[in-house]
Amino acid sequence: MLTAACGGAKSAPPTADFMGQARKLERDGQEDAAITAYRSALAQNPNSFDAQYGIARTLDLAGHYDEAREHFAKAIDLAPDGAKDQTLRMMGIAWTFVANVDEATRYFEEVFNRRVAARNPAGAAEEANELGRVYLELGHLDQAETWYRTGHDMAGREANRPAGQADLADMRWAHAQARLAARRGREKDAKQQEAVVEHLLDKGGNEDQRIQYAYLRGYVEFYLGHYPAAVAELEKADQQDPFILLLLAEANEKLQQPDRARDYYRKVLASTSHAVNSAFARPVARLRIEQGR
Question: What is the set of domains in the chain, with CATH numbers?
Answer without folding.
Answer: 11-78 (1.25.40.10), 238-293 (no CATH)
